[in-house]
Design brief:
The protein is of the alpha/beta class. The protein contains eleven helices and eight strands. Strands 3-2-4-1-5-6-7-8 form an eight-stranded mixed β-sheet, sandwiched between helices. Helix 10 links the parallel strand 6 and strand 7. The N and C termini lie close together (12 Å). The mean pLDDT is 93. Bound molecules: guanosine-5'-diphosphate. The site of guanosine-5'-diphosphate has 18 residues, from helix 5.
Length: 298
């Protein structure tokens, strides 16, 4: 991910950093190239406009033209603008799991986004790092295979799994999960809701009613970073209906252009909390805006 963008931006900086003095024209030309690089990386147009405007404002404000090492300064300004775009330096958002147990975490997203895998990864992290006792529950009544997949993953990572009962509605399974969580001393109950192949009224209504009865501390949207602008649009649509608290972007290990990752925070206003970086149960990185910006700039 980001390879092409890193290369393009590197090219822009190379032209600048060798130079002792920059003219306003040089800075404008660099800004134009940064704009094209971001657009080619599939970053949403309003986001690109905003970032470029911010970079221009800072470059002028800090008087890059008269600086001793102007190229270096542009690199730093672009770096800082990317960090801001990704949520700011202080944004290393963990999970809110404090409160009276069992605390519910609701997982939402389209089918195939990586929701079930991410549910298991989160359960493992909460157990291993935060020493929480975690119960996983699948609410996907339409796809028995999805339930079995989560059950298998729960066994693999060594956390609890709510037994499957035939013919129960998702909302009733969610209630049963919370009751089981309480009775059996679980700290956290992760609810893996049913996805669909596209945004669908039934899915939204179901997720909403599950949220109403379980009052989750976190409602996370799982989105596939490889689907680019579609992932951003999906996140927007979900956020209109569900009180999301954060995002998880999966397949960040894939060969994508990275636009979704760069647009998500700005378009939805939601913090990116985790990045999925492999298919394995430990392939989940806590999001760190500075680290990602550093990676993009190479
Ligand atoms: P769901 O339908 O949303 O529950 O999606 P799944 O959890 O079943 O994931 C769909 C596929 O994507 C599976 O083959 C996962 O192993 C894979 N997957 C999920 N997250 C990641 C990730 O971060 N990186 C990679 N490479 N594959 C992932």
């Amino acid at each position: 991910m980001f390879d092409a963008l890193t290369e393009r931006l590197g090219g822009v900086f190379d032209k600048l950093t060798g130079r002792g003095v920059l003219s306003e024209k040089d800075v404008d030309a660099a800004l134009r190239e940064i704009r094209v690089a971001l657009l080619e990386a599939d970053v949403a147009l309003p986001v690109v406009k905003d970032v470029v405007a911010k970079i221009r404002e800072r470059a002028v404000g800090e008087d890059v033209i008269r600086a001793v090492a102007p190229g270096q300064q542009v690199v730093k300004i672009v770096h800082d603008a990317l960090v801001d775009l990704l949520g700011g330096e202080g944004e290393q958002p963990g999970l809110m799991v404090e409160g009276e147990p069992p605390v519910a975490i609701l997982m939402a997203g389209l089918q195939g986004s990586g929701k079930t895998t991410t549910s298991a990864k989160l359960a493992k992290r909460l157990q291993d790092v935060h020493k929480k006792k975690v119960l996983l529950a699948s609410l996907d009544t339409r796809r028995p295979a999805a339930m079995e997949q989560l059950q298998q993953l729960a066994g693999q990572v060594g956390v609890g799994f709510l037994p499957i009962m035939a013919n129960q509605r998702a909302v009733d399974i969610a209630k049963r999960a919370m009751n089981a969580g309480k009775l059996q001393g679980y700290d956290v109950v992760i609810l893996d809701t049913a996805g669909r192949t596209s945004i669908d009224e039934d899915m939204m209504a179901e997720a909403k009613s599950i949220a109403d009865v379980t009052r989750p501390r976190e409602t996370l949207l799982v989105a596939d970073a490889l689907t680019g602008q579609d992932a951003v649009e999906t996140a927007k649509r979900f956020h209109e209906r569900l009180p999301l608290t954060g995002l998880v972007l999966t397949r960040m290990d894939g060969d994508g252009r990275g636009g979704a990752a760069l647009s998500m925070r700005h378009v939805t206003g939601l913090p990116i909390k985790f990045l999925g970086v492999s298919e394995k149960p430990d392939g989940l990185d806590a999001f760190d805006a500075k680290r990602l910006a550093g990676r993009i700039l190479g």
